[in-house]
Design brief:
The complex is a heterodimer of chains A (180) and B (96).
Chain A: H1 4-15, H2 29-39, E1 51-56, H3 59-68, E2 78-85, H4 86-91, H5 97-118, E3 122-126, H6 131-138, E4 144-153, H7 167-170
Antiparallel strand pairs in A: 1-2, 2-4, 3-4
Helix pairs in contact in A: 2-5
Chain B: H1 3-20, H2 27-47, H3 50-62, H4 65-68, H5 70-95
Helix pairs in contact in B: 1-2, 2-3, 3-5
The chains are: A alpha+beta (180), B mainly alpha (96).
Chain lengths: 180, 96
């Protein structure tokens, strides 16, 4: 790979890890704004953009969010809760509504993870949370539901890369052929 | 244990109970370990208990294995139980 831009993107993708250990330094509000900005530039089916983002930095609010999210890294110092606006989703006809909601949130989150990593911060997607509890604490209106939480902070350690299946074991060209 | 710590732990257990009905089965032990870590830290502080401090640190180091290496995760739990067994024996002997 000779192109520097492509190499930079590849490096950020390869280096990013889900961070579960953080220092107590909170990220600046500008980081959260930047992450929401890159989140909204993620692919979105039919340009639906059902996503809504709630940033959380206040320690008291973060503490409640942590208690409502058993999967939340204890030391994370900020979060972005990715929500979905039901009206937008319903305007996108079809029966794949829940797929769309998950797709949008996941793609937005990935942009946010990569950007956070590129800026020297750590992040971790958290799907283990109480939707009802989080909705109540964030005062979400009924037509907005929380889908995914992105925990953030300054990493205190960089985990080793986890194992990945070899490319040849997951790649098929033109047609799917089981390995013999 | 302060009122806030007690409340936080109770809330953590309540939300864990709600979430576990749909989560992967390995998250059950993970949630219990997280609660154990919090309790052990509180116990270590309240009673100057070095063993509980060690357990809290051990759990803190090992619990993330559930995401990357479940075999090592369960091995770590087994090793932790052995630590408890040996410590319980030591404490029982001390009382005699």
């Amino acid at each position: 790979m000779t192109d520097t831009r492509a190499q930079n993107v590849y490096d950020v993708i390869r280096e990013r890890r889900s961070i579960r250990s953080y220092t107590d330094e909170p990220p600046p509000a500008s980081l959260l704004d930047r992450l929401v900005d890159v989140g909204r530039w993620a692919p979105t089916p039919s340009n639906v953009q059902s996503w809504r983002f709630v940033t959380v930095r206040e320690p008291a609010n973060l503490s409640v969010l942590k208690n409502l999210s058993p999967g939340f890294p204890k030391q994370a110092t900020a979060a972005v809760v990715i929500c979905s606006e039901r009206g937008d989703v319903e305007r996108f006809a079809g029966t794949a509504r829940q797929v769309l909601v998950a797709e949008e949130a996941a793609m937005a989150a990935e942009n946010m993870h990569l950007m956070a990593h590129a800026m020297g911060y750590g992040s971790c997607a958290v799907a283990s949370f109480s939707p009802a509890g989080v909705s109540a604490m964030l005062e979400l209106p009924e037509h907005v539901e929380p889908v995914l939480v992105v925990a953030l902070g300054v990493p205190s350690r960089q985990p080793s890369p986890p194992a990945r299946k070899p490319l040849e074991s997951i790649t098929h060209h033109e047609v799917y052929r089981e390995a013999k | 244990m302060t009122e806030e710590q007690f409340f936080d732990l109770c809330m953590y257990l309540a939300t864990s109970a709600e979430g576990l009905k749909e989560e992967p089965k390995d998250y059950g032990p993970l949630r219990l370990l997280e609660a154990l870590e919090r309790l052990a830290l509180l116990g270590a502080e309240a009673h100057e208990d070095a063993f509980l401090q060690e357990i809290a640190e051990y759990v803190g180091m090992k619990q993330d294995l559930v995401m990357t290496d479940t075999e090592a995760f369960y091995r770590a739990i087994e090793e932790m139980v052995i630590k408890f067994a040996l410590e319980a024996k030591r404490r029982a002997t001390r009382k005699e």
